[in-house]
Amino acid sequence: MTFQPRMDNKIEGFSVVGGVHRRSWNGIVADVWDVNCAPYAGGYYVSNDPRLFILLDTRGAGQCRLRLSPNNAGLHQGGERRITYIPGEMEMWADLVDLDFVRHLDIHFSADALGRRLMEDLDPAKLDNPRLLFSDPRVLALADLIAEECRNPEPLHDLYGDGLAVALLIDVLELRRTAPRQRSKLATWQLRRAVDYIEEHCLRSIRLEELAALTNLSQSQFSHGFKASTGLPPHQWQTRARLERAKQMMIGSTPLTEVAVATGFSDQAHFTRVFRKTVGTTPANWRKSRVL
To answer: Rounded CA gap, 171 and 267, in Å?
Structure first.
């Protein structure tokens, strides 16, 4: 479903020039507005979703003041302090006095969609913290590129604008890379019991639920714990156990076709492929090296 931000406003003194320039990317909507302003222009805006308001250009002798309530003193725009972040459901009031023209970029985004894309829940403390008229050179540089893409009559591939917008949101919300979660290893008795069972029954198909039951764990817990303990998933450990059995048989004169079947491989070709991938050489060459 396409993300459609909903915003209510009550404003006066603005006249849109040339219509809105809009682009949408995966839960993000970016709008560039060019507006002529009366000697006084302003009002309030409130959106259901988090929103960035970035002043790209202003003309005139006056200033823009932003505040979170009609009675709040607010902050005046100045220099590079042109970026504002407003959480969803929070009002933003604007007063523009003696400004002739304003160009601004609005970016609305779905916090749920962004969290899914980043594969982690976004910190509510960051999402709910408004920031009025701050400066960040990287955000301003990205905002200029996004605005240029919004106004581009022949837009580039969606991945370009999408990547810029996600990068901007990561910067504004100060999202850090999450350290990989450390998986718990199996207890010594659990690992010993699982390894012994695999090596004893390696010539048949061993179900993961059998191994999990042996260690009193869920299948997911056992699988992650076994790999954390050995560096290999259970099925690869079983494959190596089969190959060790095969090596014992290959020391003698047993034909490779019989070795393959006896150690649970579908045929000699399958046995050769797995042996070469794991050991680094073919069964025939391995056998020759042991005879010499």
So the answer is: 55
